[in-house]
Amino acid sequence: AQSVTQLDSHVSVSEGTPVLLRCNYSSSYSPSLFWYVQHPNKGLQLLLKYTSAATLVKGINGFEAEFKKSETSFHLTKPSAHMSDAAEYFCVVSDREGSGNTGKLIFGQGTTLQVKP
Amino acid sequence: DGGITQSPKYLFRKEGQNVTLSCEQNLNHDAMYWYRQDPGQGLRLIYYSQIVNDFQKGDIAEGYSVSREKKESFPLTVTSAQKNPTAFYLCASWDRRNTGELFFGEGSRLTVL
Protein backbone atom coordinates (compact mmCIF):
# COMPACT_ATOMS: atom_id res chain seq x y z
CA ALA A 1 0.00 0.00 0.00
CA GLN A 2 1.09 3.52 -0.69
CA SER A 3 1.78 6.00 2.07
CA VAL A 4 3.38 9.40 2.50
CA THR A 5 5.06 11.01 5.50
CA GLN A 6 5.80 14.68 5.88
CA LEU A 7 8.64 14.90 8.32
CA ASP A 8 7.88 18.35 9.72
CA SER A 9 4.49 19.60 10.87
CA HIS A 10 5.73 23.17 11.07
CA VAL A 11 8.61 24.99 9.37
CA SER A 12 9.59 28.60 10.06
CA VAL A 13 11.95 30.60 7.83
CA SER A 14 12.87 34.21 7.37
CA GLU A 15 11.88 36.02 4.20
CA GLY A 16 14.59 35.67 1.57
CA THR A 17 16.04 32.43 3.00
CA PRO A 18 15.70 28.95 1.47
CA VAL A 19 12.72 26.70 2.08
CA LEU A 20 12.92 22.93 2.55
CA LEU A 21 9.79 20.86 3.19
CA ARG A 22 10.52 17.16 3.55
CA CYS A 23 8.46 14.26 2.27
CA ASN A 24 9.08 10.51 2.23
CA TYR A 25 6.84 8.06 0.45
CA SER A 26 6.22 4.35 0.32
CA SER A 27 4.91 2.72 -2.84
CA SER A 28 5.00 -0.70 -4.41
CA TYR A 29 4.76 0.83 -7.87
CA SER A 30 6.42 3.68 -9.67
CA PRO A 31 4.56 6.47 -7.95
CA SER A 32 3.06 9.69 -9.14
CA LEU A 33 3.88 12.36 -6.56
CA PHE A 34 2.45 15.81 -6.06
CA TRP A 35 2.88 18.86 -3.88
CA TYR A 36 -0.21 20.96 -3.19
CA VAL A 37 -0.47 24.28 -1.36
CA GLN A 38 -3.42 25.50 0.67
CA HIS A 39 -3.92 29.03 1.92
CA PRO A 40 -6.25 29.55 4.91
CA ASN A 41 -9.88 28.60 4.27
CA LYS A 42 -9.14 27.89 0.61
CA GLY A 43 -9.00 24.85 -1.63
CA LEU A 44 -5.77 23.15 -2.66
CA GLN A 45 -3.67 24.27 -5.60
CA LEU A 46 -1.17 22.09 -7.43
CA LEU A 47 2.42 23.27 -7.08
CA LEU A 48 4.12 20.53 -9.06
CA LYS A 49 3.99 16.85 -9.90
CA TYR A 50 6.34 13.98 -10.69
CA THR A 51 5.21 11.29 -13.10
CA SER A 52 8.41 9.37 -13.96
CA ALA A 53 9.88 11.86 -16.41
CA ALA A 54 12.64 14.18 -15.15
CA THR A 55 13.56 13.61 -11.49
CA LEU A 56 13.90 17.35 -10.85
CA VAL A 57 10.49 18.91 -11.20
CA LYS A 58 9.87 22.63 -11.43
CA GLY A 59 6.57 24.07 -10.30
CA ILE A 60 4.84 27.38 -9.89
CA ASN A 61 6.07 30.31 -7.79
CA GLY A 62 9.71 29.20 -7.90
CA PHE A 63 9.20 25.87 -6.12
CA GLU A 64 10.86 22.67 -7.21
CA ALA A 65 11.16 19.12 -5.95
CA GLU A 66 13.55 16.27 -6.60
CA PHE A 67 12.44 12.65 -6.80
CA LYS A 68 15.04 10.38 -5.20
CA LYS A 69 14.07 6.76 -5.56
CA SER A 70 16.98 5.45 -3.47
CA GLU A 71 15.87 7.62 -0.55
CA THR A 72 12.12 7.36 -1.30
CA SER A 73 11.97 11.12 -0.92
CA PHE A 74 10.32 14.00 -2.73
CA HIS A 75 11.40 17.12 -0.85
CA LEU A 76 10.07 20.54 -1.84
CA THR A 77 12.48 23.47 -2.05
CA LYS A 78 12.56 27.14 -2.92
CA PRO A 79 15.72 29.26 -2.98
CA SER A 80 14.19 32.35 -1.41
CA ALA A 81 11.01 32.50 0.67
CA HIS A 82 8.43 35.21 0.16
CA MET A 83 5.81 36.31 2.66
CA SER A 84 3.09 35.05 0.31
CA ASP A 85 4.51 31.51 0.58
CA ALA A 86 3.11 31.18 4.11
CA ALA A 87 0.55 28.38 3.81
CA GLU A 88 -0.07 24.68 4.39
CA TYR A 89 1.75 22.29 2.06
CA PHE A 90 0.74 18.73 1.31
CA CYS A 91 2.82 15.96 -0.21
CA VAL A 92 0.62 13.49 -2.04
CA VAL A 93 1.06 10.09 -3.70
CA SER A 94 -1.41 8.59 -6.13
CA ASP A 95 -2.97 5.27 -5.31
CA ARG A 96 -2.50 2.45 -7.75
CA GLU A 97 -3.99 -1.00 -8.04
CA GLY A 98 -2.30 -3.32 -10.49
CA SER A 99 -1.58 -1.35 -13.63
CA GLY A 100 -4.25 1.20 -13.05
CA ASN A 101 -4.41 4.48 -11.21
CA THR A 102 -7.58 4.66 -9.14
CA GLY A 103 -7.51 8.44 -8.96
CA LYS A 104 -7.41 8.29 -5.17
CA LEU A 105 -4.71 10.45 -3.72
CA ILE A 106 -3.05 9.73 -0.39
CA PHE A 107 -2.22 12.89 1.51
CA GLY A 108 0.51 13.57 4.01
CA GLN A 109 -0.41 15.28 7.25
CA GLY A 110 0.67 18.67 5.95
CA THR A 111 3.45 21.12 6.80
CA THR A 112 2.67 24.64 7.89
CA LEU A 113 5.19 27.09 6.47
CA GLN A 114 5.65 30.30 8.43
CA VAL A 115 7.62 33.12 6.81
CA LYS A 116 8.98 35.79 9.12
CA PRO A 117 9.77 39.32 7.94
CA ASP B 1 -13.54 29.80 -16.65
CA GLY B 2 -13.58 26.09 -15.86
CA GLY B 3 -13.52 25.01 -12.27
CA ILE B 4 -15.25 23.54 -9.27
CA THR B 5 -17.84 25.43 -7.30
CA GLN B 6 -18.76 24.49 -3.76
CA SER B 7 -21.62 25.98 -1.82
CA PRO B 8 -22.29 27.19 0.72
CA LYS B 9 -18.90 28.41 1.90
CA TYR B 10 -20.05 28.50 5.52
CA LEU B 11 -22.87 26.49 7.04
CA PHE B 12 -24.22 26.13 10.53
CA ARG B 13 -26.33 23.16 11.61
CA LYS B 14 -28.10 22.13 14.73
CA GLU B 15 -27.46 18.68 16.09
CA GLY B 16 -29.79 16.09 14.58
CA GLN B 17 -30.21 17.89 11.26
CA ASN B 18 -29.08 16.63 7.88
CA VAL B 19 -27.29 19.09 5.62
CA THR B 20 -26.29 18.88 1.96
CA LEU B 21 -23.15 20.43 0.50
CA SER B 22 -23.16 21.22 -3.18
CA CYS B 23 -20.30 20.55 -5.60
CA GLU B 24 -20.51 21.43 -9.30
CA GLN B 25 -17.77 21.17 -11.94
CA ASN B 26 -17.62 22.29 -15.56
CA LEU B 27 -14.29 20.62 -16.35
CA ASN B 28 -15.88 17.59 -18.00
CA HIS B 29 -14.11 15.28 -15.55
CA ASP B 30 -15.56 11.84 -14.95
CA ALA B 31 -14.27 11.34 -11.41
CA MET B 32 -15.18 13.42 -8.38
CA TYR B 33 -14.23 13.22 -4.72
CA TRP B 34 -15.20 14.49 -1.28
CA TYR B 35 -12.56 15.03 1.39
CA ARG B 36 -12.83 16.06 4.98
CA GLN B 37 -10.12 18.20 6.56
CA ASP B 38 -9.52 18.52 10.28
CA PRO B 39 -6.61 20.40 11.86
CA GLY B 40 -3.43 18.32 11.91
CA GLN B 41 -5.02 15.37 10.10
CA GLY B 42 -4.51 16.17 6.46
CA LEU B 43 -7.30 15.23 4.08
CA ARG B 44 -9.39 12.10 4.48
CA LEU B 45 -11.46 10.64 1.68
CA ILE B 46 -15.20 10.36 2.35
CA TYR B 47 -16.66 9.21 -0.98
CA TYR B 48 -15.62 9.18 -4.59
CA SER B 49 -17.31 8.63 -7.91
CA GLN B 50 -15.51 7.46 -11.05
CA ILE B 51 -18.54 7.79 -13.33
CA VAL B 52 -22.15 8.92 -13.34
CA ASN B 53 -24.53 6.77 -11.29
CA ASP B 54 -21.68 5.05 -9.48
CA PHE B 55 -19.80 5.89 -6.29
CA GLN B 56 -17.65 4.17 -3.66
CA LYS B 57 -16.99 4.67 0.01
CA GLY B 58 -13.72 6.19 1.02
CA ASP B 59 -11.95 5.85 4.34
CA ILE B 60 -14.50 7.69 6.50
CA ALA B 61 -17.90 7.24 4.81
CA GLU B 62 -19.96 6.55 7.94
CA GLY B 63 -22.57 9.23 8.52
CA TYR B 64 -22.33 10.58 4.98
CA SER B 65 -24.19 9.95 1.74
CA VAL B 66 -23.70 11.06 -1.87
CA SER B 67 -25.37 10.85 -5.25
CA ARG B 68 -24.05 11.19 -8.79
CA GLU B 69 -26.99 11.68 -11.10
CA LYS B 70 -25.17 14.09 -13.40
CA LYS B 71 -21.56 14.28 -14.49
CA GLU B 72 -21.30 17.88 -13.30
CA SER B 73 -22.71 17.40 -9.82
CA PHE B 74 -21.65 15.40 -6.74
CA PRO B 75 -23.56 16.58 -3.64
CA LEU B 76 -22.61 15.37 -0.17
CA THR B 77 -25.16 14.93 2.61
CA VAL B 78 -23.92 15.02 6.16
CA THR B 79 -26.48 13.07 8.13
CA SER B 80 -27.39 13.18 11.79
CA ALA B 81 -25.54 9.88 12.16
CA GLN B 82 -22.20 11.62 11.66
CA LYS B 83 -20.95 11.99 15.23
CA ASN B 84 -18.49 14.82 14.71
CA PRO B 85 -19.46 16.71 11.56
CA THR B 86 -17.78 20.05 12.28
CA ALA B 87 -15.01 20.25 9.68
CA PHE B 88 -13.84 21.77 6.42
CA TYR B 89 -15.12 19.82 3.41
CA LEU B 90 -13.36 19.83 0.06
CA CYS B 91 -14.69 18.61 -3.26
CA ALA B 92 -12.36 17.69 -6.12
CA SER B 93 -12.45 16.33 -9.64
CA TRP B 94 -9.77 14.33 -11.43
CA ASP B 95 -8.28 15.14 -14.81
CA ARG B 96 -7.67 11.50 -15.67
CA ARG B 97 -7.09 12.01 -19.37
CA ASN B 98 -4.54 14.80 -19.32
CA THR B 99 -2.54 15.95 -16.31
CA GLY B 100 -3.56 13.40 -13.66
CA GLU B 101 -4.17 16.36 -11.38
CA LEU B 102 -6.95 16.78 -8.83
CA PHE B 103 -8.73 20.11 -9.06
CA PHE B 104 -10.23 21.39 -5.81
CA GLY B 105 -13.10 23.65 -4.92
CA GLU B 106 -12.76 26.41 -2.34
CA GLY B 107 -14.30 24.29 0.40
CA SER B 108 -17.29 24.42 2.70
CA ARG B 109 -16.92 24.92 6.44
CA LEU B 110 -19.62 23.18 8.45
CA THR B 111 -20.15 24.02 12.09
CA VAL B 112 -22.56 22.11 14.29
CA LEU B 113 -24.04 24.20 17.06
Keywords:
heterodimer; A: 117 residues; mainly beta; six-stranded mixed beta sheet; four-stranded antiparallel beta sheet; globular; B: 113 residues; seven-stranded mixed beta sheet; 50% strand
Structural class of chain B: mainly beta
The largest interface is: A-B, 22 and 26 residues
Strand content of chain B: over 45%
- The 3D shape of chain A can be described as globular
Helix content of chain A: under 10%
Report the biggest beta sheet of chain B as strand number plus sense, adding barrel if it closes.
7 strands, mixed
Radius of gyration of chain B in whole Å, from Cα? 13 Å
- Helix and strand pattern of chain B: EEEEEEEEEEE
Instruction: Give the low-pLDDT segments of chain A.
Output: none
How many β-strand stretches of chain B?
Answer: 11
Name the shape of chain B in a single word. Answer: globular
Number of helices of chain B: 0
Mean pLDDT of chain B: 92
Number of helices of chain A: 0
Q: What is the succession of H and E elements of chain A?
A: EEEEEEEEEEEE
Specify the biggest β-sheet of chain A: 6 strands, mixed
- Indicate the multimeric state: heterodimer
Report, as a whole number of angstroms, the end-to-end distance of chain A. Answer: 41 Å
> Beta-sheet strand percentage of chain A?
over 45%
